Amino acid sequence: MKFSKKWLLERANLSISSKKICSQMTQAGLESEILTDELNKFKKIIVGKIISYHLHPKSKTLKVIKVKIEKKRIIQIISNAKNCRVGIKVAVATKSSVILKDKKVFSKVILGELSEGILCSFQELGMIDNQINNVIELPSFALIGRTVKEYFYPNDTTIVVNLPSNRSDILGIIGIAREMSVLNGLSFAKFEKKKVIPKIKDVGKVKILTHKEFPKYVGRIIKNIDLQVDTPFWIKERLRFCQVSLEENVINNIINYVLIEFNQPLHVFNWNYNNSNLIFRYSKKNELVKLENGESFFLDEKIIVGTCKNSKIIFIPLGLNLKNGRISFSSKNILLCSVFLTPSYAKNFSNQKWVSFKMLETYKRGMDFSFQNYVLEYATELILNICGGLPGPILNKKTFSNYFKRKKILFNFKKIKKILGYEIDIFRIEKILVLLGFEIIKCKKNIWEITIPTWRNDISLEEDIISEVIRVVGCDKIKSIPIKSKVIIGKKNKITSSLKEIKSMFFYKGYNEVINYSFVNPSQQKIFFKDKELISLLNPISIEMSSMRSTLLVGLLNNISYNQSRQETSIRLFEIGLCFSLEEKKKYEVNQELFIAGVISGKLTEKHWNIKDRKFNFFDLKDDVETMLSLTRHHSNIFFSPKVFFGLHSHQSAEILLNNQSIGKIGTLDPILIKKFNLKESVFLFEISMEKLFPFNNFSVKDISIFPGSKKDISFLVSNKVLSIDIIKECESVSPGNIKKVSLIDMYTDKKFLKGTKGISISLFFQNQYKTLEESEILQLVEKCISQLRKKFNIILRNE
Q1: Domains of the chain
Q2: Is 750 exposed, middle or buried (0-12, 13-18, 19+ CB in 10 A)?
Q3: How many CA atoms lie within 13 A of 591 on its CB side?
Q4: Which of 26, 379, 484, 769 has its CB surrounded by the most CB atoms within 10 Å?
Q5: Dist CA 83 CA 61 (whole Å)
């Protein structure tokens, strides 16, 4: 926010330097800085009056202007200023005048016409302003020939404050003035009730159909006003210091002035017979509206709009001025109103083009509902003093009174010591809270009931009140006391220690670790969780970061895309991080679980004269995953079972099982998604839950058998649908005490085989812990295995 220092001090009733203002506000959590205005750098700039002008004969943009600078002296100036008009008072630089950066002014001939000076804009005098190619318009009472410094605010400066996103009270001059008063130990003067005496009886009819999102309306009609008057110079100057663009219509300038001063949006539109019945309702889908500047937009549903007697939309409480309700210089009757919109409603429209962002900021943070009547009276008084007119009575309408109950918090001031580490005098705490506008009722010993002021929507907890106290006292006053605590050495965390080994393994294999945000693009994440509800953020950084991640794969795929676009041809990445999911049984509870995920894409090795180029494949990643799992000391209990997952290739994806429990997945990214993630190569990926992997990490030490072992191989045909892992498990279950290991040694197909079958060879390793197995015992076990496989899978031995 930008504002005039003099305007602030006038409201705060203080005498203080700009540097001290910035220092105090920054210390209180409102970072501030000064924008300098070079007002005192120019010399001999005087008041002149435009007598006449015409277009330059050799230019379509330049004007030849006659300017009176003394009683009997008229000079000619060539200028391209847009706002030149006969009769206005302007700032004139003549021969020997000095403007910005000590530039002297000389007479010169421009396209054959003599120019004896310059009509000055604020920029040419080094003064802060955002009006380009506009000359300074001085007040009509300015005396010709006098120096212009008499009519500006000398020694004023513009101060810039970076506002926290939760503070609505300091969006206006009044809020900052209240803040400065408190920081200097002064009470902020209460506003005397304003009441403009109605001169007409017209009230109009207002109907509100939007209820909870639009709980309050305050408005009045003003008739017979003169909108052809110029905006007073003092308002122009204050708006200039706030760097707010001046508008042609005086009413709009007054409304901008009030918005800056009180942080209260006001709406004004033409009042006539057609607009006499004002109805606030929700918009219908694709309703067309035209802005004052001629742009057209189709509205979505559920937007609050104001319509007139013939159902035309004449204004949108959050929006820019509309063509249907606009006021012009010929308008005589207006409706001036203040509408209260809930913050939850306003937050839905941050990205709409028809929105007025100055008003949106106020509505999003929450405006002070108790101040609406005062501000309407204040604005009415300004309009009557400047434009004249006959005011009507104020119409108040409340549709949802429960919204206006003031918040109350029980506050234990002893808690301040617990949080800050030192005590603050109870009388000082009470004084600070009273200065801030809080109302205190002492209930019990150390307990106060505190009523929150209507302008502080950000305070809802006891800790918020403590924050206010220390903010005013000064964070630099918190004593630096070393923390004393007993060091308790806990048990070794298995996951933490194993992660170090896993990371080292991945680094050794050429992987790079990445750390991504926990916020991801919901449309990308939905690819992997089509049947699962995702966690959305209320106030996201952007739409692309509006969902809490339920998988690490989205971030890793975007990392692959980023690196491929920078011509990386061999990419190996892994990430360890938390993923989030909603609790199925308990609503609104969120689970977080630690996962590890990895991706590979591109070429296996860099170009080499003696190595043939080869791209990564599924089995390269599977080998890396098996190496990782071997570090967990229960590799023998882990199996890969084919399964289709959302986002993975339907024929190249598998579920990772530990003791028959799913712990993760591995596979190839679905080729359809390569364009979706802007990829150039196939990507192979895996994701494993670390918390499901390590609860099983309990193993015991056993003696190694001293008796010799024996191997037997079996070759047979079996259906293509039977998984090798199921065959291995079945053989192991025949005699766990004697069959120590079953291995798949070959798997093949041949046209000679029965249709739908494949050939498999397995190796059985026999060993007993307490004796040497005889050949007859081993053959019996082999027969048992064959019998069990025939019964379960209908196998056919190769020699049959």
Answers
A1: 2-37+157-183 (3.30.56.10), 39-151 (2.40.50.140), 205-404 (3.50.40.10), 408-473 (3.30.56.10), 494-693 (3.30.930.10), 710-797 (3.30.70.380)
A2: exposed
A3: 15
A4: 379
A5: 12
- What are 167-196's pLDDT values in tens digits? 888 888 998 888 888 888 888 877 777 788
CA 92 remoteness from chain centre = 47
Task: Extract the tokens encoding 229.
Answer: 């008057």
pLDDT of residue 364: 84
The tokens for 395 are 């119409």
Which value, to the nearest 10 degrees, does the dihedral of the CA atoms of residues 722, 726, 727, 732 take?
-170
Coil/strand/helix, residue 211? helix
Distances (CA, A) of 94 to 70, 107, 119: 12, 8, 9
What residues contact 139, with CB distance under 8 A and at least 6 apart? 89, 151, 232, 233
Contact yes or no for 523/492 (Cβ under 8 A): no
Q: What is the pLDDT of residues 660-711, one digit of tens each?
A: 889 999 999 999 999 889 999 899 999 999 888 876 445 556 678 888 999 9
Side by side, the strands of the sheet bearing 408-412 are 408-412, 447-451, 439-444
Q: Which amino acid is at 743?
A: S
- Whole-number pLDDT of residue 393: 92
Percentage above 70 pLDDT, the chain: 93
Using pLDDT thresholds of 50, 70 and 90, give the confidence band for residue 575.
Answer: very high
**Whether the Cβ atoms of residue 683 and residue 553 lie closer than 8 Å to each other:** no
Which tokens go with 609?
A: 């004269």
Alpha helices in 203-349 (DSSP H): 233-241, 250-262, 343-346
Give the C-alpha separation, 308 to 325, whole Å. Answer: 9
Which residues, in sequence order, are bridge partners of residue 715?
761
Query: What's the mean per-residue pLDDT of the chain?
Result: 85
Round to whole Å and give the CA distance between 47 and 152. 12
Q: Is residue 718 within 8 Å of 757, Cβ to Cβ?
A: yes
**Residues with Cβ within 8 Å of residue 296, at least 6 apart in sequence:** 288, 289, 290
- Mean pLDDT, rounded, for 259-274: 85
- Which amino acid, one-letter code, is at 189? A
- Exposure string of 219-245, with b = 16+ CB inside 10 Å and e = fewer, is bbbbeebebeeebbbebbbbbbbbebe
